[in-house]
Amino acid sequence: MDYKKLSSDIVKNVGGAENIQVVNHCMTRLRFKLKDVSKADKEALENLPGVLGVIYAGEQYMVILGQHLLPTYEALIKDLGISGGETINENLDDLSGSKEKLTWKTAGNKFIGYISASVTPLIPGLVAGGMLKVVLLLIVTFVNTAYTKSSSYMLLSAIADAPFYFMPIIVAYGAATKLGGTPVYSMIAAAALLHGNYTALVTAGKSIDLFGINVPLLSYGTSLLPALLLAFVAYHLERFFNKIVPGIFRSVFVGMGTILVSGILGYIALGPLGNILGEGIANFFMFLNGSMGPLAVGTLAACLPWMVMAGMHTALAPFMAQLLTNPGYDTILRPAFILHNMAEGGSSLGVAARIKNKQLRSEYISIAIGCIVAGVAEPAIYGVNLKYKRPMYGVMAGGFVGGAIASLLGAKVYIMGYSNILALPIFKETILAIVIAIVAAIITSCAVTFILGIEQKEKPSVTKPVQKVYQDDAIVAISDGTLMDLKKVNDETFANKMLGDGIALKLENDFICSPANGTLTTLFPTGHAFGVLTEEGVELLVHIGIDTVNLKGEGFDVLVKQGDRVRAGEPIVRVDRSKIEKMGYDLTTMLIVTNDNGKTIQLANLGQVKNGTILN
Fold first, then answer.
1. Contact 406, 433 (CB under 8 A)
2. To the nearest 10°, the Cα dihedral for 448, 449, 451, 452?
3. Which whole number is the average pLDDT over 482-507?
4. What is the rounded CA–CA span in Å between residue 90 and residue 214?
5. Which residues pair with 502 in a beta bridge?
6. Does 327 sit behind a cis peptide bond, omega within 30 degrees of 0 on the bond before it?
7. Contacts (Cβ under 8 Å, ≥6 apart) of 224
8. Chain-centre distance of CA 11, in angstroms?
9. Contact of 172 with 183, CB cutoff 8 Å
10. What is the dihedral of CA 246, 249, 250, 251, to 10 degrees?
11. Are 368 and 345 in contact (CB under 8 A)?
């Protein structure tokens, strides 16, 4: 696959490079932060080869690519120069910008977007640390039980624990990046909660105060919500100081003021409040487990495919770490995530068993293995199960059955890890329970999918465009529309024939085509004009609209490149007539003979024409 072309097509269909603030990625999807989501063409993106699906959730425009993700992302960053990794800080000094009207829906979207973006940089670190813990656990259990007393074990454990202990700093970075603040200010405020001076005071257990205000003695390692609150407050403090501090002093006092005030608030208010909220969330999940049990895990596993499509699943990830801290295990979230992936794999196997196409069958089996062994579910969701619709019922059934069985048998996660079968040791002594639940989820989803069958639409037959052959001396209509005399054009340059004689056309079609067989000698980057040198040596200019050069390419989609050989009637530019006309532009299009090469050329200038109608 040509990843440079794919990345270029994706950029074009999300509204162009100028519409992209930043692009990140997870394991299977590109995650765009767009300036104007309405400029993205979802249908065009979904029709690109290699694209499995497109969704917008949590203020992120996501393009699902599966196995094609990394090469495409690399092409975006290296070949096209798209900004990756950090959002562009554009808002700190703009204190008068309009704000989106706040409703329950927009508030919910913003909250989910904030949580998701904040934890995105954290999740790979938590999984990496968790899997290192699994390796150490296996060594201690099956190789050398005395290894825990060695300095090597202590140092390796420190590496594995680091993503968890310093989670507030990583979360603060993600949250500040999402908001558009300076990440280091939020990170410093979060790091202050983990500083040796504070932890020593907590360990001593003596009452402490800051400016006479009591400071609660709490441990913030592995905490999430204090960092989210700190980043939010630090962002608004930075905006406030940028507003009141004179420009010449901003480099000194804005940062100092931000970390000072947010750090103080972290000790006396934000940290304790976040700790209370975290305990409340942990108690809520424990309540669900105690009161609903199997129904809670099964329902979550059944709902996860829809949550993944909405981008809501990432908001749950940090609470897994919260549960591993208090009460020390997770009986709901990670088991449900694993069993959802197993159900996606089982359903894909069911589709593979029903489909007749051998190539697709092989591909779907490969996708199923990816779900079960690697824990990557998006290719199955978008490329298989959602595509055929009915298999989604199989996914939900498998997830529910597997989740209910896991809860009934007491499956518990003790260490952060991936949602695949390679992470089974994270269940420790309850590993048999999750193995039974996994088998049940795969079998159930596969069986239900096979029984329900697949909803396969017939592909519409595509009629190839008529490729009419014209003589080399023919000049044809460049689109559908109504011909008019050039003198009536509302532009003196064309009306007075300063560039040459010709005709004008009131467009009734979005495609502007070549007027003759020849070479595309000139093509403006904006797409509003192009020139053709015919095989007879005649030079023709096509100018689309009046003053449309001011649009700088917006609403114009160039289909060829300068220097190409073209034939009469071949599409050159596609225009968004509705959009351009709504912006107040006249789309009268001119066909001008700029050099007749000594030939006598008379063009029809009245009546209705179709693209390709001979005019001379």
1. yes
2. 110
3. 89
4. 38
5. 592
6. yes
7. 119, 167, 168, 171, 274, 278, 318, 319, 321, 322
8. 12
9. yes
10. 160
11. yes
For residues 51 and 45, the answer to whether their CB atoms sit within 8 Å is yes
Nearest Cα neighbor of 129 from 171, 172, 170, 158 is 158
Q: CB neighbours of 505 closer than 8 A, spacing ≥ 6?
A: 477, 478, 479, 481, 482, 483, 484, 588, 589, 590, 591, 609
Average pLDDT value for residue range 189-204: 94
Beta bridge partners of residue 63, listed in sequence order: 30, 54
CA neighbor of 351 nearest in space, from 299, 295, 394: 394
Give the amino acid at 159.
I
How is residue 401 written in tokens? 């059955």
**Which of 333, 330, 417 is CA-nearest to residue 130?**
417
CA distance readout (Å), 244 to 89, 99, 179, 416:
19, 21, 20, 44
Q: Is pLDDT above 50 for 97? A: no
DSSP-assigned letters across all residues of 262-304: HHHHIIIIIHHHHHHHHHHHHHHHHHHHHHTTHHHHHHHHHHH
Q: At what angle do helices 225-244 and 183-192 cross, to 10 degrees?
A: 130
DSSP at 462 = P
* Structure tokens given for 559: 């289909």
- Return the SS3 of 158: helix
- Strand order of the β-sheet with 565-566 is 565-566, 518-523, 529-534, 539-544, 589-595, 501-507, 481-485, 607-609
> Which residues belong to the active site?
26, 543
- Report pLDDT for 458: 46
Domain topology for 3-87: Gyrase A; domain 2 (3.30.1360)
C-alpha–C-alpha distance, residues 484 and 504, integer Å: 5
Q: Indicate the residue type of 307.
A: M
User: pLDDT, tens digit, for every residue of 103-121?
Assistant: 655 566 677 667 777 877 7
Q: Which amino acid is at 24?
A: N
CATH of 481-609, one of 2.70.70.10, 1.10.1040.10, 2.40.37.10, 3.40.50.880: 2.70.70.10
Structure letter (DSSP) for residue 248: G
Compute the average pLDDT of residues 559-588: 89
Q: In whole angstroms, what is the distance from residue 174 CA to residue 177 CA?
A: 5
Q: In the predicted model, what is the mean pLDDT of residues 167-192?
A: 91
pTM for this structure? Answer: 0.55
- Closest by CA to 86, choosing from 175, 162, 185, 187, is 175
- At 315, the pLDDT band (50, 70, 90 cuts) reads low
How many residues are there in the chain?
616
| Token pair recorded at residue 145 | 């039980």
> What is d(CA 265, CA 261) in angstroms, rounded to the nearest whole number?
6
- Which two three-digit tokens encode residue 358? 């051998």
Name the E strands within 131-181: none
pLDDT digits (tens, 9 = 90+) for 341-381: 999 999 999 999 998 888 888 888 988 998 898 887 877 88
Mean pLDDT value across residues 136-148 = 87
Alpha-carbon gap, residue 28 to 22, rounded angstroms:
17
CB 6 within 8 A of CB 64: no
- Tell me the residue ranges of DSSP E strands in 115-250: 208-210, 213-215
